[in-house]
Amino acid sequence: MEKTSPISEDELKKLDTLDTNEGATTSSSLNTSSSDESLPSGGAGASEDPSEFSEDDLKKAEEFKTQGNDLFKLGHFEKALDMYSEAIFCRVPKNKKAVYYSNRAFTNIKLENYAIALFDANEAISCDPTFAKAHYRRGSAHLALNQLAEAIKDFKRVCHLEPQNKDAREKYQNTMKEHKEREFAKCIMKDDERIVVKVEDIVVEDSYAGPRLETPEDITPEWVEKLMSFLSSQKVLHRKFAIMVILRCREIFEKDQSLVRIEVPYTEEITVCGDVHGQFYDLLNIFKINGNPAQNNPYLFNGDFIDRGSFSVEVILTLLAWKAALPKHMFMSRGNHESKNLNKLYGFEGEVKKKYDVKLYDLFSELFCYLPIAHCINSQVLVVHGGLFAKDGVKLEDIAKFNRVREPADEGIMCECLWSDPCDQNGRHPSKRGVGVQFGPDVASRFLDENNLKLLVRSHEVKQEGYEYQKGGKVLTVFSAHKVQGRRHGAQDHKL
What are the boundaries of the region Disordered (predicted)? Predict the structure, then answer.
């Protein structure tokens, strides 16, 4: 696990800015220089006759790019993609196309379309091998896909193109360190490798005025309500008590199978919530509208509690506290963002280290490996974060017995539970994310029939109204974060 200081959010923002300059070789955020004689030939504008390109085409392409940038800043990523595509279609020099492809790659990264982002970054590099930002985009996509060795090559190339860029060099060094540690650990956790913390040795300062715990048994619904009130004033729960909550939940989750069966009386309901993504005040609003978790008001939060939003720590501690207080009436599924590689890319790692320290981040990462990857409600409804599988014949028992206590792999049952998406075309198709699969209504219907189920509920994708049924009506997507990357969405929850 990385022990050095991570790149700050401000530094990431500086690197992850759109290209608004006139050419790829004068990037405003990476300051790419074309004067290095060691750079490869065939870069921006090589073997191109400027007279081949009309001023009208150049002007039109730049207008499309500007519109794309404006839409991007508003969080309208799909529309921004269209504008960058229009710019790419214009007849312009390669150094211009490199910028447009790079911007489209960054937009696809924001949409978690990592496979498409890799394509766009490769096209940008093909247009201009000296364009540092294109290598950075490709490295970011590789990092999100857990392809650390490939990410290292790209970040190293950025450092070669920008020897004075401290941000890029730190990114390269951190990824190198992470890769070495993962190779050593092989991503598999064992009982004797669990993190041990002597909670009794942690001193609570007299000046601390927040909720306190003597024992894990003190985590009651009343205590959690005090915690939510305390966190809502943007105060930080003391490290000792945060650790106590995490350790208590680790004890609970490690007793579960990878698929948890939930029985809800037919006279009652269970509320299923999709991605929250660090939107703490949205979470509070869900509880305000629908009531706090209780014996007669159970909840299932379906992964992606963290990342993107600014209050991921508050969200995860609140959910874990409710789990500790009501273990049989509060359920939590792992999402694709409950993983080290995405936490590094989308902000949770940096947030925890800022509000606490690396030790607490390690505890969170360990805890995520114990989260179940599926829930089955009344033997009729399967709930997973992502979707279905690359092959037919997967049974609920296969999911239940799967060894989930690890970082997600690039394929297999856990990967597909966390990453797959439905589509309206029958059959299976490659995922635009580069991980998991896209599955059609026929695949969903076959899986449900084989397992005597009626409905698949999943999250993982932003929907305009907050929820959406796949064609055929047997797959329901629920997304709860009201505002993600500038876009306002969210059904808040869905009752079953």
Answer: 1-58
pLDDT tens digit sequence for 315-326: 999 999 999 999
Question: What domain range includes position 57?
Answer: 9-185
The β-bridge partners of 348 are none
User: Which amino acid appears at position 378 of this protein?
Assistant: N
- The 10 Å Cβ neighbour count of residue 410 is 12
Count of residues in the chain: 496
Q: Are residues 93 and 202 in the same domain?
A: no
CA separation for the pair 31, 338 (Å, rounded): 34
- Mean pLDDT is lowest, of 206-210, 245-249, 490-494, for 490-494
Task: Give dist(CA 406, CA 396) in Å, integer.
Answer: 20
Element (H, E) at 94: helix 94-110
Q: Measured between alpha carbons, how far is 490 from 482 in angstroms, rounded to an integer?
A: 4
Residue 403 Cα distances to 349, 374, 456, 459, angstroms? 25, 13, 22, 22
Contact between 205 and 225 (Cβ < 8 Å): no
Query: Could you list the active site residues?
Result: 337
DSSP 406: B
pLDDT tens string 216-227: 999 999 999 999
> Nearest 5°: phi and psi at 415?
-55, -45
**Same structural domain, 442 and 379:** yes
Region of 371 (left: φ > 0; alpha: ψ -120 to 50; beta: rest) is beta
Pair 164, 219 in one domain = no
Cut 0.85: pTM above it: no
Say which residues have a Cβ less than 8 Å from residue 345's Cβ, sequence separation at least 6.
Answer: 140, 143, 144
Mean pLDDT (the chain) is 88
Tokens of 35: 């004067």
> Is 413 within 8 Å of 389 (Cβ atoms)?
yes
d(CA 369, CA 295): 26
